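Class, carefully examine what follows:
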Amino acid sequence: MKQKIFPWERYILITIGLGFLALVVLLPLINIFYEAFSQGVSAYWQGINTPEAHHALMLSLIITVIAVPVNTIFGLLAAWVLARQNFVGKQLLLGIIDLPLTISPVIIGLMFVLLFSPIDSIFKSIVVAFDLKILFALPSMILVTMVITVPFVVREVLPALENLDKDQEESAMILGASPWQVFWQVILPNINWAVLYGVILCTARALGEFGAVAVVSGRIISKTNTLTLHIEQTYSNYETIAAFSAASLLALITLLTIICEQILDHRQKISK
């Protein structure tokens, strides 16, 4: 027999939940914008309109623009293989894809140091022989961001593919459609919302990555500083307005991402 929940109990639970969210999410977010504009719009603009901030923002966007499409393609392929194929090691592959969600980004950064360091690493001889600039440069930053954001598209697309009726694909193939046509005309229209969700989450995570990038970038100002690293560096240097101004920009991008996700969710419900 289910225990009845009285209206006042429901209101208490809702109040506690909303109060907790306001305390740990809403108030800190408001405080970021308050601190950023605490000395006026002019000071805010000066804090964000610097060559270092511009470079950090552009570098973050470049990394995201490269990492997200690559992970979208990989995510679609991996999700299709996991949903449609049975093979030995399937659960192991799924576990490897989920690994970035379970271990610290700092450890992922150290893994790449152990792989590509020119001083002492697994591929030291290759790095030195070809004078490869991987660590403390853009390539390593892109690679760690790709690893960190691998699970998001896969995890959004996989359930959609598993719930998709295979009869449509088989009928299209019987009628003479190529695998490419089946994907574009049958599969993708049925999973497009899941793909968009995955892309949005992947984008937000790529823009906000700090730990792994901090390890492999070297934190070189105007060279390998992303927006998150720029925020940390300016705050450590007691440049409070500059730090909160950059943080407010990153927070604004995150809020826009959440709004886009909610709009897509609303449209998906309407389309159903």
About this structure: The chain has twelve helices and no strands.
